[in-house]
Amino acid sequence: MGISITTIDELKASPFKWSDESGLNIKINSGSLDVQNCTCLINSANLTLIANQTNYIYVDQSDNTIKTNTTGFPVKSCYLWIMTTDADSITNKSDQRTKIRVAAHSEYKTQATWLLDTNYSVDSGWLELDLSSIAPTGAATVKVDMKASDSGTPTDNNWFGIRKPGETGDTRYSKVSPLVSGRESIRYAEMGINSNKKIEYRVIPNGNMAVKLQLVGWGYGN
Question: What pLDDT digit, counting tens, does each position of 76-92 carry?
Fold first, then answer.
């Protein structure tokens, strides 16, 4: 899944390619990403990496800028590169761009945008959602936007929630509660998927609750 890079020419032309390397300084080129059903242009960035460290380079989804740290990829980020350094130079570059959805690349666009798009007027109970047909090899987590609106006036007891199969009772990993009648509430979540690439969801409406689960991306190796 993601960008397929086979030649040096492709590397030079592809989004988020590194360039202008000098010592510990490096430039990451601009690119476009699909973020919450919109195409966002991400500006290029000139970075200074930390010496004698593993440096993680990513797009921060909170402000759509390219950043780096030495602690690992944040939850709300699109992976770009892992680069290792010695005292005064970059010694290795590991391309992580195959783990993001790039707007210029059509492979993800052929997949269903919505994992779930339905209405409930009564408690649905916990239902299984099978992601095996679209989950990339190696995916350990699914990144989603949860959306819900209710025709009634919901309370904290009315919600749309998701969890991993095997949880019991009323346990849920993430939930969204539309506390104002008719107004859509949105929440981002990143949740582990089991070996069968399945999750569970439940809807407890007050009137008629419209719920949507939108695929944002995948996480690897958690």
Answer: 778 888 999 999 999 99
